[in-house]
Amino acid sequence: MARMSLTGGCLCEAVRFEVSEPLHGALYCHCTRCQRRTGTAFSVSALTVPGSFRITRGEDLVRSYQPADGWGKAFCGECGSHLFSTGRDDPDLLAVRMGALDEDPGVRPSFHQFVDYAAAWDVVPDDGLPRYGEAVPVDVRQAT
Question: Which listed site, 28, 54, 102, 105, has its alpha carbon 20 to 30 Å from 3?
Fold first, then answer.
């Protein structure tokens, strides 16, 4: 049986989106930027197939922040929910925030990146997943 599209959205339901292809893979990010963006110790994101993501409602409410040296961060302008990130050098790279999905996406995080910047008050779990002190190497990203 064919899998239906994944759906998701923000806390206030003003922004909704769908992902029409299975996700490539997922990761935990412990960078300082993710800590400050989320107010937690890390973020969990999943990479989409290029062209498979579309906003179905509330596109005019989506706001973004583009850091000079990182992926663009998109969020709901009404409730502030984090929705997705886009590649700085390749806008076809889009990663959804797994917490914004409505159902089980069928993928699990397969590594931790930026663990050198993990919050001092949190412990990166000993879950057997590979850990990278900085950004994950490109060959690993392509394999997930």
Answer: 28
CA distances in angstroms from 114 to 3, 37, 100, 124, 128, listed in the order given? 33, 15, 22, 11, 16
For residues 13 and 92, give the distance between their C-alpha atoms in angstroms, rounded to a whole number: 25
If we measure between CA atoms, which residue out of 96, 130, 122 comes closest to residue 41? Answer: 122
Query: What is the CATH number assigned to the segment(s) 6-143?
Result: 3.90.1590.10
* Residue 90 CA neighbour count, 13 Å, CB half: 9
| Per-residue model confidence as pLDDT tens digits over 32-67 | 999 999 999 999 999 999 999 999 999 999 999 999
Report domain extents, the chain: 6-143
Q: Beta strands 109-113 and 82-86: pairing type?
A: unpaired
The four Cα atoms 67, 71, 72, 75 give a dihedral, to 10 degrees, of -110
